[in-house]
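Researcher: I'm comparing several assemblies side by side, and this is the next one on my list. It has 846 residues spread over three chains. Same procedure as the others: predict the full complex and return the structure.
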Amino acid sequence: MSRPRGRRIGIGAALIATLAGLALVPTLARRDDVVNFVFIVLLSITLAESWNILGGYAGQVNLGHAAFFGTGALVTRALWTAGANVVLAMLAGAAVAVLFGLAIGVPAFRLRGAYFAIGTLVLAEILRITIGNLLPEISTLPTATITRYRLADRYYLALVLAAVAVASVALLSRSRAGLGMRAVREDEDAAEASGVGALRLKLIALALSTALAGLAGGLFAYYHISYYPQHPFAPHWTFDALLITYIGGVGTLHGPVLGAVFYTFLKEYLAIHWVDFHLLIFGVLFMTIVLALPGGLVDLAGRGRRWMTHSSCPRQPP
Amino acid sequence: MLEVRDLAAAYGDLAALSGATLTVGGGEIVALVGPNGAGKSTLLKCISGLLRPRSGAISSQGRDLLALHPHEIVEQGLALVPEGRRLFGQMTVEENLALGAFSARARAEQRSSLDRVYQLFPVLEERRRQLSRTLSGGQQQMVAIGRALMTAPRLLMLDEPSLGLAPRVVASIFETLGAINRSGVSVLLVEQNVRAALRLARRAYVLEGGRVVGEGRARDLLDDAHVRRAYLGPLAAQ
Amino acid sequence: MSVLAQQLLLGVLIGGLYGLAAAGLSLVFGVLRVLNVAHGDLIMLGGYGAFWLFALLGLDPFLSLLLVVPAALAAGALLYWGLFASVVRFHDETRIKNSLLVSFGLALAVHALAVRLWTADERSITTSYGGEVLTVAGLAVPRVRLLSLLVAFGLIACVHLLLTRWRWGRAIRATAEDWQAALLVGIDVRKAYLLAFAIGTALAGAAGSLVSVGYSISPSIGLEWTLKALIVVVLAGLGSMVGTFVGGILLGLAEAVSAAAFGGPYREVVGLVIILVVLVARPQGLFGRS
């Protein structure tokens, strides 16, 4: 989609300004919890965009996303606490996640639609239970590492990762692969019939999706001082990614970003009175969006803009 | 009995009907013939409510059928025997027929309707406890027609009843359709077997490319040059 | 040996509840072709219904079924109208996908609400006869669980009769087979959908009640029971209430065997592995009509 040059410069400038602003947060913020908050937003953006690639662009609803997040966390934690450089450990974690994803992808993609969703959910649950049984003890960083802990390191890594995630999705959506994926999403049989290799595209989407999820998991392992090894495999990570993506706008670039900010805000600031309050709101919002506003909040904003400029939106024939 | 005016329908972007008009009078047998893909099935689907047309009008005895839900159209007395029979395969002959009398109006006449059906198709009474998917093609067609008769219809519509059936069976079924008509039920018959259809019907329409290209008395159409060449000649597919 | 036999017996006892839980899901999926992943949360609500009727009014949980089932029936009707009536306008894959998504949102919302209202604590109903145990052939049979099994079977049998003898029950079965043919014989398919969904929800509510008395409930049992129901439905296939009940018992037995062989922590895994194997061995899904 080509935009007029002036507009593109404007968007570029805005992006640079945003990144610069975000980069300054650790130095400017006086309280740690502000940095923590933005960190979580950035992590959520990465997780949501990673889900968005397979679920939004390729149209394959993956309910086992947590399995890749967890795998990344597991491998990263193990390598990093054994002495490896954290970035290398995260890359290793992502690599293992991708391999795992591709291994199950080929049989899993024989299932269509909801059966793929159920299958992935079941697989993730099996993994979570198994990890929980094999590694029931809490994983805590050694004291030496804790004293050296710098939140800013985690923060900048999160910023870079989120930028990479968003950039990947942006590049993908403009690429031929991205177009092919959208064709598969609309109608897989029709796409296959017109020569689009559906399985290959789904595997590409899966690889990219799991890589980013694995990296996000690695970041989680780097950030938290102690957690139960099965925790990053818990289905709520998948559900968070789904909620954020759909409410923001599934299959769009900035939808998950918008959703992540909204979601994290609601979660962190309303947790005071009611721990899972954000889930009630998001559950209801989610249902509303699926039934009435498939484009998510991004679409709502678009409709608002169109309404204000009085341009008519041609209605789909029933 | 039935009035269809300027009906246009499409599947997505594919236009299937572009302005079809026909009528069926009370007590008539009317045939609708034409090649594959002409829109005959689509027309029946629109009348029975399974497909929403893009434009046009369908009415029966003064009522606008387009405003009705499919099951309400059945209540009005219009019954469709769909292409491929569409029986409830996991149920017995008896159960299929019983379901035909689902609407309130049909239920009132259920006993007598059933007697009628068994009279017309004695083999169904013999096999009434048999699972319908284990029946032969011809017997399944009988169940399908019987089930439609159980709805106590004023107009019986059939979509390609002869499809996949042996000539002897087809002849027997067409004979029965005649008997049904003589008892007061109007019949709208969509058929690829043009010869048999035109022999049975009083009037007929020819549908090609989504519109009516010919109409008249069935006997006259049998002699029509275009019809003979397209549908009845030695080169035409039977 | 007798330890294994005891485990198998307990497996059968809970298997009956798995079957009841699955029956509701099977009905909904079989007739509406809609996947309600909030089914387990409806079970959870049924459990809390029975729990509070017992805690606040002292109503015996088996008796309170007389209240829970009609309430669940009504709730099912409301849920259908509010959420799924628009989803069924789609065809096939989109319908299943959208129903999965909508019910996902429902599950989250219901779960969050339950946590707020009743906290995350586990609850269980302990009646005066709750601790009684019958001894049959050297095996201990908890009376409450045996009663639950019988009630579960009774409910399944009721639904089976409804589907075969009741006019609308036959209409529901016809709709499940071929909704267009059902329309053509004068069945209002929308009504059939509504009834099927309501009955399915009623079965879920009943299952929940029985779970709260013989076992325990908490807001988080939703996902667990949805998965159990799914496993049994995939295993047993669609179309038979009694078959689903038997499938539930089989799952209960499989879990008992797995726990005996691999240890308690892996009890849950066997069912999940079963569903995965079945789903992958039949790429069209077990739900595909042969």
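Model: For your comparison table: The longest strand of chain C covers residues 133-136.
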